[in-house]
Write a sequence for this structure.
């Protein structure tokens, strides 16, 4: 991202087994991760009048 490459650890969750229309077994998963934008050189911050920022530093994937 923004010309920076870093390893990211995803946390997989097994959702179950099923069969596709052709009878083949399939496994379902979903995975999540989060990154800090500033670690990738993204430092833009636009403060809100009421406090806080428009874009936070943590990005959930």
């Amino acid at each position: 991202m923004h010309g920076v490459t870093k390893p990211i650890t995803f946390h997989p969750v097994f959702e179950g087994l099923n069969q596709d229309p052709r009878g083949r077994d399939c496994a379902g998963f979903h995975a999540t991760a989060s990154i800090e934008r500033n670690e990738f050189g993204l430092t833009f911050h636009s403060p809100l009048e009421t406090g806080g920022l428009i874009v936070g530093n943590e990005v959930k994937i």
